[in-house]
User: Fold this.
Amino acid sequence: MQNAARPLTAQDLLLLSAPDDAGLVVNSLLTAASPFVGAAYLDDIFRNLGILFVADTSIIARRLDRNGSQVRVLAAWKDGEHRESWDYDLSGNPCQLPYNGKPTLIPCEVNTRFEKKRDSNYQSFIGLPLHDADREIIGHIAIYSSKRITDDQNWLNIAKIFAGRAEAE
Assistant:
């Protein structure tokens, strides 16, 4: 079922969050999380990422084997709550797309396009590959929302800020 409301734009979100300075939102989230490292950082940043993107689910996952389709979620926020780690298979899931090496934005109809998301209410998806020091893809960030978003490069640019710090962890 498609949402009849106008898709949310990255600019809408930033203006709603910080009317006087859109950059302040991202800066505030990064500053708030900066004292944390490792697992504490990942938990905090994915909670904030979910809030910033009005996301139903935001995760960071690491590939369990170099070329396989199994991943382990390292940090997750779903429906406003921290979730424990779990393993899953990428096949039939939009999370497989960042493993081609490019950021992915699907603005609508995720739940109709991907077999493993058919029973969800997800409309939009943002996925980014995570690299190791040798630039091999070792994992991904995924952001799911029940809201449609615009096919806007700003969504990816904002998410890349968080991905850069997550790679360092």
